Amino acid sequence: MRNLRILYTNADGLLNKRQDLKLLINSQSEKPDVIAITELKQKNIHSLHISEFNLDGYNIFTRGSEHSNGRGVLMYVSSNIQVSLVDIPSTFQESLFVMLKGVGLLVILNQLLIDNVYCSSNSTQDNVNELYNLLYYLHCPSMLRRQLSSRSCQHAWITATVSCMVLLMD
């Protein structure tokens, strides 16, 4: 089985960089399965429409692009992968969860939860506290398993704060 290919970038405004993203994807010997993007919106843009970011061969998921505050997060998932949006109970706005099914990372793995989170260095203390609550929830396996109704799920976090990316496998 092949590995899952993930591309991450902090775009600081994707709308004017879509062509660069397409060039990057097309320059790869194998296209990424998942593309996670933070800071979807430029600082002076208040709302965007998801249709502005369509990319051939990918399903698109976004959160925070419709709010006037925040920068937004986005994930593209290859249309060859079965995927669904996962609703995690949290008031933290700039986080996005998707469940990949049938991904061949391990023989026993049939589901993978991926998270793309952005927390600005200018976030309010309340927003940072909500991020801590979200991370605590994710690190508590019994609560997460109840939410996902599955014991055969692995999860990965693609977490970005400002322009720093960490990928954690548990």
Structure description:
By secondary structure, the chain is of the alpha+beta class. Helix content is 19%, strand content 34%. The protein is built from three helices and nine strands. It has helices at residues 18-27, 125-139, 141-148; strands spanning 6-10, 34-38, 58-63, 73-78, 82-85, 95-101, 111-119, 153-161, 164-169. The strands form two sheets. A five-stranded mixed sheet has the order 5-6-7-8-9, with helices on one face. Strands 1-2-4-3 form a four-stranded mixed sheet, with no helix packed on it. β1 (6-10), α1 (18-27) and β2 form a beta-alpha-beta unit. It starts with 5 loop residues before the first strand and ends with a strand. The model is unreliable at 159-170 (pLDDT under 50).
Largest sheet: 5 strands, mixed
Structural class per helix/strand content? alpha+beta
Number of helical elements? 3
Give the tally of structural domains: 1
| Separation of the first and last Cα atoms | 20 Å
Record the strand order, biggest sheet.
5-6-7-8-9
Shape call? globular
The whole-number mean of residue pLDDT values reads 75
Total number of beta strands: 9
Low-confidence stretches: 159-170
Strand content: 25-35%
* Order of SSEs: EHEEEEEEHHEE
Over all CA atoms, what is the radius of gyration?
A: 16 Å
Fraction of helical residues: 10-25%
